[in-house]
Specification:
seven-stranded mixed sheet, alpha/beta, 7 helices
């Protein structure tokens, strides 16, 4: 029991060190032109990324004061400590535990001018199926949703529900931001489902694109 507790305490620090080292070895290309105007205007953004593609993003976008929604589970506690080491502010909650509270906290952060990161298929899947919370947040705040993906030319895949991706050292990686989307505040339930499918399709499209680009 004590060893397990110690492991959970040490894992975020060791993980952050390993990710920094890994990132330093990569041949990385960033494609961020779609959000340049929003950044220049100081507009908060809702960044959406699939759970399997998360690993390097806190390191690559560290120190920007972004907010991230993290599960209230024990694994979420470790993830929260991990992303904090890169300057992210965490909001605890998920679709299964503390969902409404997490949504309101994210909306408050957006209202204060902070960009937020959401993982719309986390924390337990189904893999690459966008849950409705992203649409609800966009509708509530009026902020743009921007799909984000990272692809690697060579990677390991975990035997987990999401097939979590770990780029191999010295691989070629591409990070791409998709086109921003706004969700009208007056949408009915049918409109919200249409928006959910459109954002899901956009996130899948940019994910497919970075995989293709990284392998060229």
């Amino acid at each position: 029991m004590k060893a397990a507790w110690l492991g959970r305490k040490l894992a975020p620090a060791l993980g952050a060190w390993a990710v920094r080292f890994l990132a330093a070895t990569l041949r990385l290309r960033r494609e961020e032109r779609t959000v340049e105007a929003l950044r220049a205007a100081g507009a908060p953004v809702i960044y959406a990324v699939w759970h399997a593609r998360l690993l390097l993003l806190p390191c690559l976008y560290r120190g920007r004061g972004m907010r991230a929604l993290v599960s209230r589970s024990e694994d979420g506690a470790m993830m929260s400590e991990f992303v904090r080491r890169f300057g992210f502010v965490t909001i605890r909650g998920s679709s299964s535990r503390g969902g409404a509270e997490g949504l309101l906290s994210l909306a408050r952060a957006v209202g204060e001018g902070h960009s937020v990161v959401v993982v719309p298929d986390g924390p337990r899947g189904p893999r690459e199926v966008l849950k409705p919370g992203v649409v609800a947040l966009a509708k509530l705040t009026g902020a743009h949703v921007v799909p984000v993906a990272l692809g690697a030319s060579s990677e390991w895949r975990a035997r987990s529900w999401d097939e979590f991706r770990i780029p191999k050292p010295f691989s070629r990686c591409v990070v791409r931001f998709g086109e921003p989307t706004r969700v009208p505040r007056d949408l009915d339930a049918a409109g919200e489902e249409t928006a959910r499918k459109e954002i899901e399709a956009a996130l899948n499209a940019v994910t497919w694109q970075v995989d293709e680009e990284a392998r060229r």
